[in-house]
Design brief:
10% strand, Rossmann fold, 7 helices, 223 residues, alpha/beta, 36% helix
Length: 223
């Protein structure tokens, strides 16, 4: 059995990949060089793919920086972390998961893969609309009607979101249980060799490790 796994090089996508591995699937990770402000996460994705000794790690090049509108793809400053923020932060990349899942769906159809794994989370996250169960449900419905596999061959390519209802601490605990290489991941929006420790993503990650009762294995400028 084959599964396409969206692999960003971050904590969540790596734990998600460990779940697919644990469930017995042959892993086909797909990552994106989309014009993000740094390629640190892409280097981490390559390291994670190597850890799992996959036959092929597909890297798609696309220029979402041409659209911009995000602190990750445009000349917009990455804000300091704010656990009380209510609005969607400027680190949101417009339509990113919709675009990434569409590529993954096409890849899954070509591979004759049964599932697509994506590490979206709707509990401890930055408030992105494309990480919610509602978005995944609607994409799944669209996927069933937009491929030859679904309309002619009666093959259902299932989008799996094993982390969607977990806290960050629960995700970390699951990753350690599955021997996921958390030391090879990055979560920092600023993308330095050392994680900044102060952006939204770093703050959520550090809090998750603290609540899980263990030490984050990566290095930070400040914790």
């Amino acid at each position: 059995m084959k599964a396409v796994v969206l692999l960003s090089g971050g904590l969540d996508s790596t734990v998600c990949m460990s779940v697919a591995k644990k469930e017995g699937y042959e892993l086909f990770p797909i990552s994106f060089s989309y014009g993000q402000r740094h390629n640190r996460e892409l280097e981490c994705a390559k390291s994670v793919a190597n850890y799992y000794n996959v036959d092929k790690h597909l890297i798609i090049n696309t220029n979402m920086d041409a659209i911009g509108g995000s602190a990750l793809t445009d000349d917009i400053e990455v804000p300091e972390g704010d656990e009380n923020r209510q609005d969607i932060p400027v680190t949101y990349v417009p339509a990113r998961n919709l675009i990434f899942l569409s590529y993954a769906l096409g890849y899954a159809e070509v591979l004759d893969a049964a599932k697509i794994y994506i590490g979206v989370n709707a509990v401890d996250y930055s408030g992105y609309p494309d990480c919610r169960p509602e978005f995944i449900d609607r994409f799944q419905n669209l996927a069933d009607y937009s491929t030859k596999a679904g309309t002619q061959d009666s093959k259902h390519i299932k989008v799996e979101t094993p982390l969607i209802h977990l806290t960050k601490a629960e995700i970390i605990t699951l990753g350690m249980k599955n021997d996921a290489p958390l030391n090879l991941t990055t979560s920092c929006y600023r993308g330095g060799e050392l994680a900044c420790g102060t952006c939204d993503s770093c703050v959520l990650r550090l809090r998750g490790f603290k609540e899980a009762g263990c030490e984050d294995p990566i290095l930070y400028q400040q914790r």
